[in-house]
Amino acid sequence: MSGINRVFLLLFSKPVLYLLTDKQNLVEIAHVYLLLMVFSQYPEMKSKVTYGFIRSAGYGTTPTVIDMIGIWGVRVFGCYLISMVFHLDIVWIWWIINADQWVRCLLSMAVCRVKRIIYLLEESGNEQIESCHI
């Protein structure tokens, strides 16, 4: 699904935006936003999957902690710096949103690796399969 979204955003974003408005400058701004969001599709989908792994391994609150780190540590703090301290364009805020998605993805993958969650799920899955054959 993420690949389909990326292709759609890359190829058809401008024509769809022209269906929504006839203002050229608004279409240009929205087009830049949609192109930047192409970079956040993969980490967003990957995080959803790894959050499911983490929860199913018994670490139910860990995804919430990861989200708090991403939102407050990266997104809010980064957007504050970009807008209030450096007075940069809104495009930089969109890059911060992408960075937030990537940080969440990398943190969730790190938790899976450190806690050996994939191995835990494989072992419990094999035990369930063996118990079904008895």
Structure report:
The protein has helices spanning 2-20, 24-56, 62-85, 90-114, 117-133. It is flat. Helix 1 (2-20) runs antiparallel to helix 2 and helix 3 (62-85) packs antiparallel against helix 4 (90-114). The protein contains five helices and no strands. Helices cover 88% and strands 0% of the residues. The protein has one domain.
Order of helices and strands: HHHHH
> What's the total helix number?
5
For the largest beta-sheet, the strand count, sense and barrel status come to: none
Q: What's the end-to-end separation, in Å?
A: 39 Å
What is the total tally of β strands? 0
What structural category do the secondary elements indicate?
mainly alpha
Q: Provide the low-confidence segments as ranges.
A: 128-134
Q: Name the shape in a single word.
A: flat
Q: How large a portion of the residues is in β-strands, by DSSP E?
A: under 5%
Total separate domains: 1
Percent range of helical residues: over 70%
Radius of gyration using CA atoms only: 20 Å
The overall pLDDT, averaged over residues, is 88
